[in-house]
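Re: [ENG-882] Designed sequences occasionally contain unexpected residues at chain ends

Forwarding the minimal case from QA. Structure tokens:
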């Protein structure tokens, strides 16, 4: 006899255990990240972005060379500060998009910004594009800089629990490159994941560049 009954109790228990493991991992990594000083965040972020920009200019992430439409995030809660990357993309005349939460659907819509003056405070006190900024369709996005709390070597991620990126990432065009800039302590060997969880292609930390699934 298996450990399940006709009501699928075993499956539910496994899902509950996975959810508890995710919750604990999210709590632990967030505590580590939020313990960093502003000076540490600035230094570590500079190292991460320098590695990402070096890689983007070389053969390792050559897929980015011809990309024109980039989706990014505005850093909050001690996330890697990607603003230097944003400024570099603007200098190279790329199309730069940021998420704005649509309260009617609880989904993210990505809007084009031309400067940091285009942002306004959103419903979660997060900076997001002003409502006057033009919307771009998700399937037009060619590269995504993905935030998260923790990532594993297969590219699976744990976010803040809202599921926004798990709902958004399947909508981008086929072949879109998904890159996560992270601090080294946010990378773990393996995370619990479910069928709907979305993976990234690359992890970039202060110490290394990882092709997901090939570490």
């Amino acid at each position: 006899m298996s450990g399940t009954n006709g009501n699928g109790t075993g499956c539910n228990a496994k899902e509950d255990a996975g959810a508890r493991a995710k919750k604990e991992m999210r709590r632990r990594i967030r505590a580590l990240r939020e313990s960093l000083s502003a000076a540490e965040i600035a230094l570590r972020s500079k190292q991460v972005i320098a590695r990402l920009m070096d890689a983007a200019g070389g053969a390792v992430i050559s897929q980015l060379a011809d990309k024109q439409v980039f989706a990014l995030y505005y850093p909050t809660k001690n996330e890697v500060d990607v603003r230097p990357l944003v400024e570099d993309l603007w200098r190279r005349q790329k199309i730069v998009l940021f998420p704005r939460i649509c309260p009617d659907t609880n989904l993210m819509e990505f809007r084009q910004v031309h400067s940091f003056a285009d942002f306004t405070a959103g419903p979660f006190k997060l900076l997001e594009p002003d409502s006057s900024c033009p919307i771009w369709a998700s399937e037009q996005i060619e590269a995504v800089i993905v935030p998260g709390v923790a990532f594993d070597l297969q590219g699976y991620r744990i976010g803040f629990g809202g599921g926004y990126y798990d709902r958004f990432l399947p909508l981008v065009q086929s072949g879109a490159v998904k890159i996560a800039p992270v601090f080294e302590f946010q990378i773990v060997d393996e995370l619990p994941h479910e069928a709907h969880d979305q993976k990234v292609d690359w992890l970039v930390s202060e110490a290394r560049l990882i092709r997901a699934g090939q570490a």
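QA comment: On inspection the terminal residues look reasonable. The chain is about 25% helix and 20% strand. Proposing we downgrade this to a documentation issue.
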